Amino acid sequence: MKAFKIIVLIAFVFISIASSAVFIGEKIGTDRTIPQITLEQDMIEVSLKATDEELLKGVTAYDEKDKDLTDRIIIESISGFTEKGVSKITYAVCDSDNNVAKASRMIKFKGYESPKFQVVDNLCFSLYEHIDIREMILAHDSLEGNITSKIIVTAEKYSTSVPGAYSLEVSVTNLKGDNSTITLPLIVEDRPLSVPTIELNEYLVYTAKGQTVDFDSYIVDAYDTMENSLRNQVTVESNVDFNQPGTYNVHYYVTDSNDLRGHSVLTVIVGE
Length: 272
Fold this sequence. Notes:
By secondary structure, the protein is mainly β. 12% of the residues lie in helices and 44% in strands.
């Protein structure tokens, strides 16, 4: 019995030594080094429609065991804006032993502009008209393109059945978190539907501080209910100060032979 116990003990010791040897061998054979990602620059400038090739420019990866891992780098994420037009981009790479390395830098989108609005029709109405304001206002973003579906329109004390000059607050935010908000006029008048029409090619214009706008150039035509042109009879009223950033409204008027007056409005946004 004693001899049997000694044999069992020896077998147990042998198995333990063998298991330890296998474990140590596995440890020695496993790569525990972390790959290294190298960035040539802390910030790069990229186009608005940047490709992966642009975003990965100047990024390399190396591992002691696998050597060059540059072709295995992926773009893990691109953040919202940390400031206008600037995001944080994070890269990741994995070696053959599933060791992962990450690195980040900043990217600046060249030529980026905040979302801008477009007004496609006159915001001056007769109270006898049916209007849908949302069909008249569009929004475009230099990164996402058309973001009209994200527009939010709010108005206080507004009624289509009560004549008056109202203000609309129009806001939109893109995926990067950049918000644009403007104030547009909404003018409801107690006038017949047969008044002359003044058609403009734009109803919202952006301009830089100090840069003037030729208001007359926005008139496409003016005509009465008989399609007679009244283009040369249109008058313009404006208080725009091109040296002072802000939102202004330019009013166009024309009167036909029946003494009926048409009215259109152009909003001018003077930037910084």
